Amino acid sequence: MTTDLTEAAIAILRANDRGDHTVPTSSGLYPAQWNWDSCLVALGFAEFDPDRAWTEIETLFDGQWPDGMVPHILFHGDDSSYFPNAAIWQAGPGQRSSGITQPPVAATIIRHLFERFGVQRSRPHIRLLAPKLLAWHRWFYTARDPDGTGLVAILHPWESGMDNSPVWDAALAAVEPGPSVAHLRRDTAFADAAVRPTAAEYDRYINLVLAFRAEGYRADRLYGMAPFRVADVGFNAMLQRANRDLRFLLDMIDDTAGVAEVDRMISNTRAALEARWDQAEGFYLSVDTRTGQAIRQPGIGGLLPLYADPMTASRHPALITRLERWLDQVEIAVPSFEPGRPEFEPRRYWRGPIWLVVNWMLIDGLKRNGRPDLARRIRRDSLAVVARSGFREYFDPTTGEGLGGTDFSWTAAMVLLLAG
Length: 420
Ligand code: 2M8
Hints:
The protein has 19 helices and 9 strands. It has helices spanning 2-16, 35-45, 50-62, 86-89, 106-117, 119-143, 157-160, 169-173, 187-190, 199-214, 219-225, 233-252, 256-274, 305-308, 312-315, 317-328, 356-368, 372-389, 409-419; strands at 33-34, 73-74, 230-231, 277-278, 283-284, 286-288, 293-295, 394-395, 402-403.
């Protein structure tokens, strides 16, 4: 069974491979290179083709902007089946990227590749990539945390990677919708509209893009003018984990100034993330930095401090209890939003379905936090749901139904990683 599954996973990655980058699915739904997809996909390539794993990341960093940002999408070929494509974004030096970023998981993935392949084979790649990683992390702390709070802000729900999570509902509702773009959408030609973001959300997503485009995507302008600005716990937890892994990489290549710089990032973010723990809620809460209001919506990002820091569970056992309660309410681990809440929609994208990439982060975090039992349960469920429903983009945690795109690259990569 597992052998069949891993062979199928390899075949999917091969089919979605465009030579120097991988598309998330061959179906046409996402005909480009996505930032965190690529990094997570490299974890899959690492299981059977080490060189290809490095190429995936190196292509992504070839698209880095001069200011250090690594865009959330790089458009390499025909992008006519996607909206908004490069012609709409009009972003970046080559006009072949989006103008926003995505969760910075690259340093974590590169450290994983180092641990998998060893010093000899990894060092040249790390020498090339570590300075680029440092430039990206530095960009986050200057462009997205100009007041030095220790938490960086996302300016678009797409930056979170968890596009239509209920965590953004209130902040997004405050954004002007602009003209309707329903007729321009392409995603609903590939996936059922009932499992995708709504028209109201899309109108705002695009209006944000147009507002940023009007500012020429200048980092020094966007933070102040952005109609949407959230310091998200999940995003900052992924950044913090990546900071720790970047520190390790810089130390390996003897960049002492870089290590000192990242040490400051780590200690500021550690304190700021800890300040987002809400004792009464028993959860980490993101904050709308335009209004200063805490966001009381329990999305899966609020569990990711477990992935950022191995002391999280001992400091806050209530967080583990909360996760266990979520799991008691569904068939299959892990829902992307708290089940039982009115906003929970088990089939709609990031409002409830299971995403294997986040499952992997929780598995990794739970092992480090002294809960290998829970990690095993999530691993078992993750492999079983794919065996049952195929390599889909996401899955209904109440039934196991596969949803969204088919033959999905990061789902295949996670199967390879978890089965290995
Ligand atoms: C989804 O997001 C894109 C926009 O970036 C979309 O819906 O068009 C998200 O699941 C995101 O996390 C993911 O990186 C992307 C490609 O798989 O699709």
